[in-house]
Fold:
Amino acid sequence: MKCWNLFFKYFLTSFFIELCLFLGLEKNSMENTSMDIRQLNEKIHQKSAFIELLNLELNKSIVGQKYMMERLLIGLLAQGHVLLEGVPGLAKTLAIKSLSTAISGKFARIQFTPDLLPADIVGTMIYNQQQNQFQVRKGPIFANFVLADEINRAPAKVQSALLEAMQEKQITLGDTTFKLEEPFLVLATQNPIEQEGTYPLPEAQVDRFMLKIVVGYPELEEERMIIRQNINPSLQSKINPVVSPAEILEARNLVREIYMDEKIEKYILDIVFATRAPEKYKLAKIKPMISYGASPRASINLALASKAYAFIKHRGYVIPEDVRAVCMDVMRHRVGLTYEAEAENMTSEMIVNEILNAVEVP
Structure:
């Protein structure tokens, strides 16, 4: 009996010591994590100061359209391409050109037409008779900012010429592969009101755009200022370079370092998986409306876009509101609709809203 008492006492003592050590380690670990996040937050707050400077410069030529400009910056910082959809005259081209000027980047504009050829975008091999050899003539895709204007005007063969550049950031001409200069960003526009003579983008290409932004009309007072700027030369200001490409590349690396908690990761996954199996999230009513759900690119891009949004807000960590802020632009072009949904005038935006309202916020 005495031996059992000694053993039991020894066991309790050892257990208590182990528990104290464990709790101490847990406490130290939590304190260290909290300190790391605090230091990261301060670092991001300092390094993201150029965002305000960039916005001030862009506001010289772009009146209103704050939402569009913010999304263009998210695409730039998260290394994602952007698809802009809106009626003509909403400053889509001007916004992209102004952004490239403010960042001292090379700008190229490609006007997509039905008779455009892939070689007109990526370039081709030209035979030089004097040197008796083929030489590379690079196309307009070799720039930092490539504006693909009215991308749905060209057939799929031409549209697909962008795929390698958008995904691998490289172009192959003949036997040679050329790396594209960073930062590299494709900004495509499409007109939603004219369907005659247009070619819808293939799903494989649409999925390679991180964001699809629907550009709306300006407010009345904003349009008043637009009129004044365009009829009065004294109110027009020239965009000056205020940020270097090197600073953008540094900011991209910092965006990847922004802290994202496991609960936020689960929230992102729940949103994406709800498009594939809505019945598991008590959304059985929208299941007949979805022909296909979002791909794993949606999860990756939603996480990156949320981090970029946090960076723009000068934070070193992601909160659920960041995910909700960018979710529509990441998801609206990744949810396929059935004929039944189209017959009932359902849109992908409505389905994404249903999912956001149903999925539990951490």
User: Anything to note?
Assistant: Residues 6-17, 19-32 have pLDDT under 50 and may be disordered. The first helix runs from residue 2 to 47. The radius of gyration is 26 Å.
